[in-house]
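Entry type: protein chain
Record version: 2
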Amino acid sequence: LTREFFTKELKKHYQGNNESDVFSSTWNSVMITFGCCGVNGPEDFKSAPRFQLLYSHDAFPEACCRRDIQSRDGVFLSKENCLMGKEIYQNQQGCYTVILNSFETYVYLAGALAIGVLAIELFAMIFAMCLFRGIQ
């Protein structure tokens, strides 16, 4: 699950606002929910062949446009300015960084929990060995 893998897959399969394509609609949902654009940023779409076939060379997906509320129902701040490439109306941060930052605390929590469970199991195993030795 590296940045390069996601970038390659996005460029290969992303088709913009195509609701019938599961890959594209999932990416659109992720970009809208997390307020991000592409894997590394909006520049990912400049070299995405499938996206460029469907849209003009300088186009960006609507999902990259800033909204007043980050949801599909949220109103665009300025859809026209966003699609023209004005950075102030686009989400500039890549989704890989945003998602990694949001899950970072959960990763540490899961690691700490795993270490705690392993410590309890180790003490239980030592206790079981002491009981076994006491019976013999």
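Comment: The chain has a mean pLDDT of 85.
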